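Review form for a predicted model. The reviewer records the input and the model, then writes brief findings.
Reviewer: anonymous (R2)
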Amino acid sequence: MSSPRKYDLKPSVTPSSNLFWFIKEGIKLDLSEPSELDMYVQQIITRGGTEDIKDLLKSVDSKRLKESLERIKHFIPDEVKGFWEDFINGSHQ
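Model under review:
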């Protein structure tokens, strides 16, 4: 059996009800599913605080974060998109 990749270590999360008020409490998001990952990333980067961002970075590796940002780029403000693109392309490649 091969060892898990970094992003396989936390394939699901229980999102905060403060940010994900529209999801039934206690539901886990499967971050291996692109649509659930994209929803999680979009909500965190547009509405989350420092702790939410830290949790995001622990749950999603930079490659998958970059892929998600590419898919959701039309749904997030340009300033937010620019910040995360700079962050990923800078010190976290």
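Findings: Residues 1-8 have pLDDT under 50 and may be disordered.
Further findings: The helical segments are 34-47, 50-59, 62-72, 78-89.
Recommendation: see findings above.
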